[in-house]
Amino acid sequence: MTLSTHAATKAAWRRTAAAAIAVARRAVGDHAAVSPASDAARDEVRSDAADAGLRAFRRIVHGRSSARGFRPDAPVPDAVWRDILHMTRTAPSGFNLQPTHVVLLRSPEIKRTLAEHAMLGYGNKRRTIDASGIAVFCSDMRPGMRVGRIHELERDAGAREDGYLAVMRVASTFLTGDGGGASSFARRAFANALSPVRPMPTMEDVGMWSYKNAGIMSQMYVMAASAHGLSTCMMEGYDARRAMEILRVPNGRYGVPIMVATGYERGAPPVAHADPGGEYDEGVDDSRERRRAPRLGMSELFFGDTFGEPLDFLLDHDDTSSERENMQRR
Ligand SMILES: Cc1cc2nc3c(=O)[nH]c(=O)nc-3n(C[C@H](O)[C@H](O)[C@H](O)COP(=O)(O)O)c2cc1C
């Protein structure tokens, strides 16, 4: 059986099953009495949605490739950026510390400066100038400094067991490798000594830990942008020290492991954007959304053009004032 006939047979079977269930419901006149059939109907609906989700995701995954060139002067609508960043924020992170900020660079002047003074190679320079936006991922190299804020966020949201919150501070400094110097050395020696006897946390270098988290978040960003029909190109060919200076990323505290040029690919068919007005939770399983560990505010994580600069399109769409107060408290 070919895939398409198989799919058609499955769909026909589903229609028949759904019709039979509806008849059974009417005949008995009591939904509870046909609960096994109701369950079956629900499962059918779920599996239709799952099929559609899988097909859509597969299209996005196979449709992505790194863009070689971008159409200049083709801005991405604010609503599209906003939705991409909302999806990006759902990326998981170690201890939910959310150690990655994104500077979404769209200013033509700053893009040009970055291209001229920090990007390596003709391709990266050209892409930086032409792409609608460059998402610059900034990794916190002192993730321990975030623990207090995240602890508070999780406690207030009632998102964790008390036991978890009690050990989070110590456990997170262990795993992130933050702390530096003698204490890190002592913890690593302790873990290495006990490892032959019992499983111990792997103590990574803090940069590796933080860059790992940025990799996960940047991939989420790429998939979100791809789902919106945009093209991307991850870039590591740049002088990070110079880039940080241009984008005012606090040196010593952050590193820049990756940038993602984003926009409309040169020579590709025009993109007809889906209506992002459907809001972020459309089609989302609510209970799963509620169970997700709380995230930092959009304006805490995402900046415009330079580090710490608010993104204009988030200003009137978010609880930004309380988020900014939180930032100032840090
Ligand atoms: C971490 C990372 C860094 C990259 N850096 C660059 C870069 O600086 N310049 C560039 O043109 N492509 C860069 N790429 C894109 C790769 O060349 C590209 O992903 C790879 O050739 C596979 O092609 P595809 O993305 O079209 O599947 C990078 C990709 C990754 C994952």
From TrEMBL:
Domain Nitroreductase: residue ranges: 63-119, 208-264
Annotated region (Disordered), positions in chain: 269-292
InterPro entries: Nitroreductase (IPR029479), Nitroreductase-like (IPR000415), Nitroreductase_HadB/RutE (IPR050461)
Alphabetized SUPFAM superfamilies for the sequence: FMN-dependent nitroreductase-like
Source superkingdom: Eukaryota
A Pfam family: Nitroreductase
Family annotation (PANTHER family): MALONIC SEMIALDEHYDE REDUCTASE RUTE-RELATED (PTHR43543:SF1)
Designated name of the protein: Nitroreductase domain-containing protein
Native source species: Stephanodiscus triporus
